[in-house]
Amino acid sequence: MIHRLLLAFTGFTVFACAQPLKLTRFDGPAPAFREEVAGVYQIDGPMSLLATPEAAVADGPLVLEFEAFCVGGVPAFAVLPGPPYQAETHRRLAAIGHSETWTPYAARLNPPDKPMPPGWKSLRLDLPIPAGKSLQLRNLKLRAERPGEFDAKSAARSTPPEFIEAYLSGKSPASIDRISVTNDTITLTGKADGHRDGIFLAEIPMERLMDDPERFETLDAITFDDAGRFTLTLPRIRDRNGLRHDRLLSRWQLVRVSETGRAAHSHSRYADDIVCRSPDLPAAKPSNKKGLGGWHAGRLPATPGEPDELDALGISAVTVNVMIHSLVSLTPGAHTTPIQWQGRTYHSREDVLANLDRSFLEAAKRNIMVSAILLVANPARDGNPVVKRLGHPDAHPEGTFAMPNVTDPEGLALYGAILNLMAERWSRPDGKHGRVHHWIMHNEVDAGWVWTNAGEKPAIVYMDLLHRSMRLMDLIGRQYDPNGKPFLSLTHHWAHAGEKRWFGSKTMVDLLVRFSQTEGDFPWALAYHPYPQNLFNPRTWEDGQATFSFQSAKITPKNLEVLDAYMRQPALLHQGKVRPVHLSENGFNSKDYTEKELADQAAGMALAWKKIQSLSSIESWQYHNWIDNRHEGGLKIGLRKFPDEPGDPHGKKPIWHLYHALATENEDAACAPYLPVIGITKWEEILHRGEIER
């Protein structure tokens, strides 16, 4: 409950804390504005609305705050206090960004030098929502501006983009070619050309920045043979500032030491070969490509006489969201167990872990492949001490989640402890807690500003952070499971970024390839989200921005051949093999529950399924969202209707019955009714057989 401080002011009660706002229509068609559920408003197309506080608001600088869900975003808009609502007193507020989840928005309404007009009662919001687009708003409020809220904030130090670019592009006269890690030792081999005096092997802990002058924490002498090659074996564990340090997690570099100082003489490299607790742990082998995204045990209440949904649909793969900050505490508690990591003590939260075990055990009973989506709460929105230490300090409150804090020793240590806890627990040979086969590293990182925020950064600086996160998961995970992989999570925006502050999926893939080539390749894979071009329109075969070119603006179900061809390029192979591609979040909207819209939704799924059967790089499709959700910006993307749908809660849509039939002997019969919806006579017509433009 929000504490309210009552003050006397012109006959009204004045609230010193946040003041809720009630929205009503000022100008625009009535059907285009509605309150979906209490306090959640949907606005279709351009509209003027009145936002009225419950009581009068005190003088002083105010902030308009709400949460928005808007695919495509809304341009900058005018706010007019009144009545009367006069143009000369209007304030222009920043655009509402594109969002595919509820995203916070806060804008300064009146700075100290521009007070609100006397006697105002409401705010008129003139929202230029593009025609055909929808905006959802909730938790609207006015509140006092916090001291320093809109001041420029100092950023955590990061390596300049020019330095990273020069490092990735540069040539070196020496190299570390292989690093092998046993339980007790690390063995490094490499070579140096020409003059070899003064060359040492340096260890660089992972959190150290590339241009940090203090990054070379240890120097070991090297003996070269006549051909300039060397082999050096070192202890795996060393003391670091009085703490146990596992050097598996360091990167290594050759350094020339001279009277003028130390200078890099090679690129850095991470471990290649890692001793594994269970080298014979079997890899996941899904029986088909059919999966569910965002699944967890118990999400759909059991219906007497009906099989579990996983069994009913023949699911072979699931993704499970894991809020990793919730797994540990910095202090002991009623349901915690001490865990040791890198000389530090944390406390695992056994009740939270046991709840996740339920889902993983249910999947294991059915030999279902599990991919955990690793999410970190945003420290700009969450005051939990774990979140504050774990999340990147530059994260902006507009971000739903945050990048881990991988360039700080305490942040990296906490992150490593959590990854080790998960990998050890969910890769046990006895399967006591269930199994996680793969790790999806955060969510839609090419749209990191919305989904995995680390502040506003150039793409190459952002990838420096993400690469460390993926490396850490790989190095830790392969100690327990030789087959587990970190996956790069991306949107359908390919060669075009899609929105301001976004990067584009192709940019992220290309940068990760460069980091891998420079610092030693590792078995990362791809978790792609090829939604239709317009998330509201399931008729993906009409996607004009999805072309058969590596420069396609988007990759959607229409042009999945582009993704397959791109991943088959020699530079993207790992040890000569195509990296796995999981389409780990995808779905088709039904604008409503009419026969036509439901047929369009199912037709999109039929097209996508027939496409992926011909593309061997694509191993799995996880359907999202399984059940319609009233808090998803107006989308009805599920296989089932809303849980509270009048007369048909959780009702099965035609797409549910189609999905049920896929990968069975009834597949062709179930797909056939959707051929005329697409306007084709056979499924071969949707397959692109020509060249992909490079």
Q: What key attributes describe this structure?
A:
Jelly Rolls; 694 residues; 3 domains; TIM Barrel; 33 strands
Notes on the protein architecture:
Helix 5 crosses helix 7. This protein has 694 residues and is of the alpha/beta class. It folds into 3 domains: 6-144, Galactose-binding lectin (Jelly Rolls); 171-274, Immunoglobulin-like (Sandwich), CATH 2.60.40; 290-686, Glycosidases (TIM Barrel, Alpha-Beta Barrel), CATH 3.20.20.80. Strands 3, 4, 5, 6, 7, 8, 9, 10, 11 and 12 form a 10-stranded antiparallel beta sheet that branches. Strands 23-24-28-29-30-31-32-33 form an 8-stranded parallel beta barrel, surrounded by 4 helices. The chain contains 13 helices and 33 strands. Helix content is 19%, strand content 27%.
CATH H-level superfamily title of the largest domain: Glycosidases
Q: Biggest β-sheet, characterized? A: 10 strands, antiparallel
The separation of the N and C termini measures 58 Å
Global mean pLDDT: 93
Shape: globular
What's the helical proportion of residues?
Answer: 10-25%
Backbone CA Rg: 27 Å
Under the CATH scheme, which architecture of the largest domain would be assigned? Alpha-Beta Barrel
Q: Identify the CATH class of the largest domain.
A: Alpha Beta
DSSP strand count = 33
Beta-strand residue percentage: 25-35%
What is the count of DSSP helices, taking H or I runs of 4+ residues? 13
CATH topology annotation of the largest domain: TIM Barrel
Low-confidence segments, ≥5 residues, pLDDT <50? 1-16
How many domains in all?
3
Overall structural class, as computed from helix and strand content, comes to: alpha/beta
